[in-house]
């Protein structure tokens, strides 16, 4: 585990072969916030010719994981839900921005907005809420 809490999310993401294999790029993570980007590829499009919701969830979950791990201690999801607002299409670049809303004890709540840029500005594609739990390490009595 790195000494610098801001590096913890970077180290975790570097070992995240699931997210990286999909081309997800971590744009930044610090102080309970993170942003990540992904391009919708042909293998991510479902039978309705739109991005499969599982990939949108994965992008949001990746930003969430980096945000809650930006504090330093190992943190995992204890639950999450997503609302799909608009369809994403082949070739679109999607950005997920995660922000900590509150933390209490070893728990946290984070909101993530997934959007695409358009001529009119940011078009929201999905809204995600994740609940986190810091994991006690060996010898930790918390």
User: In what range is the share of β-strand residues?
Assistant: 35-45%
DSSP summary: helix tally: 3
Strand order of the largest sheet: 1-2-4-5-6-3
CATH superfamily label: Hotdog Thioesterase
Structural class: alpha+beta
Assign a percent range to the helix content.
10-25%
- Major sheet attributes: 6 strands, antiparallel
Low-confidence stretches: none
Q: Tally the structural domains.
A: 1
- What CATH architecture would you give? Roll
Would you list the SSEs in sequence order as H and E?
Answer: HHEEHEEEE
Q: Find the count of extended strands (DSSP E, 2+ residues).
A: 6
Pfam family, one: 4HBT
Family: Belongs to the thioesterase PaaI family.
Domain Thioesterase: 50-117
Organism: Amycolatopsis marina
How does this model look, in words?
The protein is of the alpha+beta class and 142 residues long. The protein has one domain: Roll (Thiol Ester Dehydrase, Chain A). Helix content is 23%, strand content 43%. It is built from 3 helices and 6 strands; from the N terminus they run ααββαββββ. The protein has a 6-stranded antiparallel sheet with strand order 1-2-4-5-6-3. Helix 1 packs antiparallel against helix 3. The longest helix has 17 residues, at 53-69. The protein starts with a helix and ends in an 8-residue tail after the last strand.
What labels describe this entry?
single chain; 142 residues; alpha+beta; Thiol Ester Dehydrase, Chain A; 3 helices; 6 strands; acyl-CoA hydrolase activity
Report a brief summary of the structure.
This protein is an alpha+beta fold. The protein is 23% helix and 43% strand. Helix 1 (5-14) packs antiparallel against helix 3 (53-69).
């Amino acid at each position: 585990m790195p000494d610098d809490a801001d590096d913890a999310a970077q180290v975790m993401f570097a070992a995240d072969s699931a997210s990286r294999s999909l081309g997800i790029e971590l744009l930044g993570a610090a102080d309970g916030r993170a942003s990540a980007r992904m391009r919708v590829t042909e293998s991510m499009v479902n039978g309705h010719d739109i991005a499969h919701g599982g990939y949108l969830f994965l992008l949001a979950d990746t930003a969430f994981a980096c945000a809650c791990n930006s504090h330093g201690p190992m943190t995992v999801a204890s639950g999450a839900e997503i609302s799909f607002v608009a369809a994403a299409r082949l070739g679109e670049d999607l950005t997920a921005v995660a922000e900590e809303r509150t933390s209490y004890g070893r728990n946290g709540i984070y909101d993530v907005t997934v959007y695409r840029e358009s001529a009119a500005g940011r078009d929201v594609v999905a809204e995600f809420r994740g609940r986190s739990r810091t994991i006690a390490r060996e010898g930790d009595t918390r």
